[in-house]
Amino acid sequence: MSVDLTAARSADAPAATGTGAGPLMLPEDGIVDPIAIEIAASGTRPVALTHTERVLAAARILAAGGGANTIAARLHVSGSTARTLAHQARRIDDPGDLWAA
C-alpha cells in the first residue's frame, strides 16, 4: 500500500501563517521529513513541522551560525519558543545524516 505523504502534509497544514503551536505545527507521527527541515531551516518558505522536526531545523540553524532570532524568523515562532528550541537542539547529539535511510 502506497501513502502520499506530501498530500497528507499539505492537508494537515492550513495556510502558513501564525506562530507557536498554530497551523505550522504538526502532530508527531514518528516520521522525520528531512526536506521539510531543510526548507524551514533555510527560511525559503513557511512549512509545517512536528516538534522533532522543529528541533532538528533549529539545530541546523545553530550549526550554520544562526541564533534564537534566526530560529524565530525562519521557523515562524515566538522568541521564547525559539530560545526553547535552541536549548533543546543543543542538548541532542549529532542527528547524523538525515538523508541516510
Could you explain how this protein is built, in words?
The protein is built from five helices and no strands. The chain is an all-alpha fold. The longest helix has 13 residues, at 51-63. It is globular and about 25 Å long. The chain starts with a helix and ends in a 10-residue tail after the last helix.
Features:
mainly alpha, 5 helices, 0% strand, disordered N terminus
Mean pLDDT: 79
In N-to-C order, the SSE pattern is HHHHH
Q: What does the largest sheet look like?
A: none
Structural class: mainly alpha
N- to C-terminal distance:
20 Å
Q: List segments where confidence is low: pLDDT < 50 over at least 5 consecutive residues.
A: 1-20
Seen as an oligomer or otherwise, the chain set is single chain
The overall strand count is 0
How many helices? The count is 5
What is the rounded Rg?
13 Å
Proportion in β-strands: under 5%
Q: What proportion of the residues is helical, as a percent range? A: 40-55%
